[in-house]
Design brief:
This protein has about 375 residues and is α/β, with parallel strands linked by helices. The chain is about 40% helix and about 10% strand. The chain contains 17 helices and ten strands. The strands form three sheets. It has a four-stranded parallel β-sheet. Strands 7-6-8-9 form a four-stranded parallel β-sheet, with helices on both faces. The longest helix has 16 residues.
């Protein structure tokens, strides 16, 4: 877990530097889920200072409302990460064995099959069928080693991200290699769900596995993998970038063009894991700006102020009791107010949550949600 695991004699207060908190409230003031939850992260940090209160705090349903978007960490003037207090409390629940069945099943699936979706490891590369995909071999040098996230590998709706990327890479003559079915979950959601032991094992196994490849860098398709590798894998022997960074690089080199255009108003939704956590804001916009005829709009809440879609923090497997408007629906309403015809994303979780919001609001006739690679595929990406 590297920074999250407690030593035998380390207290909860020491682990999360609770004494560093000045109780300014900026974390709670910026927390997006307070609009639909009783979660008050400032209060949790304050109460967690009292070790005797930890078990009671861990029983509160609000600890599962956090999406791990990192807004509280971005806003903290002391450089603390208040959300990690909630992850620590989740760890206590996990260790007690009293988790929601959906959470339990997802964690068990990661342990058994290397993914949280209860899919067979042997089918992880089924999305490659019919494509000319170059597979990386540990003993053969390659410039770009691609890592496909579990959701993209198994969910038919978002497999288009990987499929279109392969077509684009082949057309642009990029030196690359994808990993075969030996690829396993990066542990992003395992970490935020609080399964300390499993996450530590994942980090060790993946580090050993990925370090065997002779690659100049790892390129992730999901911001969740991108952030997890950069934040929690200190012993990786190669840098990790997101695919939008690679695309921006190819554009700068004049190696990437596409045939068609798109006369649409497009607004880009900054994924929390790519923006707030990864600091990647310009590259996705750089790619979208190259689409002929497209007019790029901006949300009022953009970049480091982007509104979370609620797809992160393990929320895909956590049942919530709130009946208030989902943040994804708020986001889509904001897009409609801008006059956007396409909400562009660069994250599989954002795609799934925002697309569901479009459907639940009945906006399918006037708006669509599309991943950047989905749009480029429709334009005939190549050179």
């Amino acid at each position: 877990m590297r920074g999250m695991m407690m030593s035998e004699n380390q207290t909860f207060t020491e682990k999360f530097d609770l004494l560093g908190c000045i109780q300014c409230g900026r974390c709670t003031g910026g927390c997006p889920v307070t609009a639909r939850s009783n979660l008050n992260i400032r209060r949790f940090v304050y109460d967690a200072y009292h070790e005797e209160a930890l078990e009671e705090l861990a029983r509160l349903a609000e600890i599962w409302d956090c999406t791990a978007c990192h807004t509280c960490a971005v806003r903290c003037p002391k450089g603390l990460k208040p959300l990690e207090v909630l992850i620590g409390l989740r760890t206590m629940v996990i260790e007690s064995g009293k988790t929601q069945p959906t959470v339990r099943d997802a964690l068990e699936s990661v342990f058994r099959e290397g993914n949280p979706w209860e899919k067979a490891r042997a089918t992880r590369c089924d999305w490659m069928e019919g494509l000319e995909v170059k597979i990386a071999q540990p003993d053969t040098a390659v410039e770009n080693l691609f890592f496909v996230c579990c959701t993209i590998a198994y969910d038919p709706r978002v497999q288009v991200i990987a499929k279109n990327l392969v077509r684009l890479l082949n057309a642009a003559g990029v030196d690359y290699g994808f990993i075969d079915d030996g690829e396993s979950c990066c542990g992003s959601e395992v970490y935020t769900l609080g399964e300390d032991g499993l996450f530590e094992m994942i980090v060790e196994d993946n580090t050993e596995f990925l370090n065997e490849f002779q690659a100049a860098r790892i390129v992730t398709l999901s911001p969740h993998c991108f952030t997890t590798y950069n934040r929690h894998y200190p012993d990786l022997n190669k840098p990790v970038i997101h695919y939008t960074q690679l695309l921006a690089e190819l554009l700068d080199q004049g190696r990437l063009t596409w045939e068609g255009g798109l006369e649409k108003k497009i607004v880009f939704h900054d994924p929390c894991y790519l923006g707030k956590q990864g600091g990647i804001y310009d590259e996705p916009r750089r790619v979208l700006q190259e689409i002929k005829g497209a007019k790029l709009l901006e949300f009022g809440r953009a970049r480091e102020r982007s509104l979370c879609c609620e797809g992160g923090g393990g929320k895909m497997w956590v049942e919530t009791e709130s009946k208030k408007e989902r943040l994804a629906e708020t986001r889509i309403k904001d897009a409609k107010a801008l006059g956007a015809e396409i909400v562009a994303v660069a994250c599989p979780f954002c795609l799934l949550t925002l697309e569901d919001a479009v459907k639940s609001l009945g906006f399918e006739e006037e708006m669509r949600v599309a991943e950047i690679m989905e749009l480029l595929g429709e334009l005939g990406g190549g050179n």
